[in-house]
Design a protein that fits this description.
alpha+beta
């Protein structure tokens, strides 16, 4: 009898242990939460995941203990109170423990391949890599996971900045984060959410894209392209030939694919703002890009429920287009759209990089790009008004006999790098632009050409791959501009 009781008690104990263990094991945080991660300071932070409906979830960090319950849909969210920068801490979620967690400034870095180019491919790569010993700088390297439907989870890994881990982290994002770390003196983290070759519609929600008036049917365009690709592949196979490697279906180019698979899983995440480097894939629609970029910013702010979320983007640098069917003004008109969005959308910033291209699609000079993005963030987001963030921008023109005087905003200490006054063009009423002479006069530039006796318009940096040499005393470049409002090629 005693033996039976012992067996029953043992069985009951085992069942109790199994139920308890199984119940807790079903509480699974999102894969975003891991060792070495960084959480946003001074803002309520969401911790989320899945579990058994009704299961209790308890989160501990930095002296905070917050509990919640798994909902009927199997999902849970716990909001941590605002926390000051510091660490390292342990983040405990029920029986799970994540170590070496910091609290500081977190940014999302997104876009296409120029945001992907890793440090190892940047100028002075070996020197930069050897110096990358920053234990308070953290990277979240998110996998490229496009999808046709919105996803809840993502794949990625958190890493501490070391010479080894920095090699394959985006150069722009690294230099941006490094500058913030040095100037703010708090831990900094950057999320890599990037896919090369993507156009802007792939990062936008289906609902937002559908709401844009007079918007092209991008899904139909994509499907037509994929159909042609599949037909060509079949043609090669029918001839018993191997299709070229670059001839393959591209599911990642489907509208909304990156939004569904890469942005959606991060929607509960809390971070300070976004840095964005994209536009090369949209070079064929430079004018309409202003509509799309405005829509993307609005979409992301609504998705993250942050109407004033800082959004800082890169105005595309100079590079050669190798597409004969495109106008040589495609990139100039896209840059114009980017400036339009910056001037007309609140709490945005634009880093001018017209001098960082080297003719290649993927310039290696990413340090300057990251530094200029960081300068804008430091000035606009963190209130460091003494940090120079912008160079000269065109304000107005004044005709003076056979020349035109150009006035700028933020034009203190103008100079031409290497004394080369290149990049300027001038035109008369015939609208035919010719290379122009440019002379600095105080904080203005006087532009003229012997071949244009009655000039009416000036352009600067207004080609795909211009050589621009105009800077201010802070060695920040003047932005490309045009004084005319003549019709754009891409409006067609």
């Amino acid at each position: 009898m005693d033996k039976m009781r012992i067996m029953k008690l043992s069985t009951a104990l085992i069942i109790f242990i199994l139920i308890t263990f199984t119940g807790h094991a079903k509480v699974t945080p999102n894969s975003f939460f891991a060792d070495n991660m960084l959480l946003q300071r001074d803002m309520e932070v969401c911790v989320w995941g899945i579990g058994q409906p009704g299961e209790k979830v308890t989160v501990y960090i930095a002296g905070n203990r917050i509990s919640g319950i798994v909902g009927e849909n199997g999902k849970w969210r716990v909001m941590l109170p605002t926390m000051r920068a510091g660490g390292p801490y342990e983040l405990k979620i029920n029986e799970l423990t994540f170590k070496n967690v910091l609290i500081g400034e977190l940014w999302l870095a997104s876009g296409q391949s120029n945001m992907w180019v890793p440090v190892i491919r940047c100028v002075n790569a070996q020197k930069e890599i050897a110096a990358a010993k920053y234990p308070c700088l953290r990277f979240y390297k998110m996998d490229r996971t496009p999808n046709t439907v919105p996803q809840n989870s993502c794949k990625g890994v958190w890493e501490v900045c070391t010479p080894e881990s920095v090699k394959m982290f985006p150069g722009v994002a690294y230099f941006f984060g490094r500058d913030l770390l040095k100037k703010l003196d708090v831990p900094v983290g950057v999320i890599r959410c990037v896919y090369g070759g993507t156009d802007i519609t792939q990062w936008m929600s289906q609902e937002k894209l559908a709401s844009i008036p007079n918007c092209p049917d991008y899904l139909a365009i994509y499907e037509r392209r994929q159909k042609k690709v599949l037909e060509k592949i079949e043609e090669y196979k029918s001839k018993k030939q191997e299709p070229p490697k670059n001839l393959r279906p591209k599911p990642h180019r489907r509208p909304h694919a990156e939004f569904n698979g890469m942005a959606c899983p991060l929607l509960p995440a809390v971070f300070r703002g976004v840095i964005w480097y994209q536009g090369e894939a949209d070079k064929w629609q430079g004018y309409f890009y202003r509509v799309l970029l405005t829509a993307l910013i609005d979409d992301w702010r609504k998705q993250w429920k942050r109407p004033d979320m800082p959004f800082i983007f890169v105005q595309l640098p100079n590079y050669n287009l190798f597409y004969k069917v495109l106008s040589p003004l495609c990139l100039a008109e896209l840059r114009e759209s980017q400036e339009y969005v910056w001037r007309n959308t609140k709490n945005t910033g634009m880093a001018v990089t017209i001098d960082t291209g080297d003719g290649a699609v993927h310039p290696k000079t990413k340090r300057q790009v990251g530094q200029r993005l960081a300068a804008i963030a430091l000035r606009n987001v963190y209130g460091m008004k003494n940090v120079p963030a912008y160079g000269p921008f065109y304000r107005r023109m004044k005709k003076e006999n056979q020349s035109i005087r150009i006035f700028f905003d933020k034009a203190d200490g103008l100079f031409f790098k290497n004394n080369e006054s290149t990049g300027f063009e001038i035109a008369g009423k015939d609208k035919k632009f010719v290379p122009a002479n440019a002379v600095i006069s105080g904080n203005t530039v006087i532009v003229s050409s012997p071949g244009v006796k009655d000039p009416v318009a000036v352009r600067y940096g207004w080609t795909d791959n211009p050589k621009c040499r105009l800077y201010d005393k802070n060695r920040l470049p003047a932005a490309p501009f045009r004084t005319d409002d003549w019709p754009r090629m891409s409006e067609k």
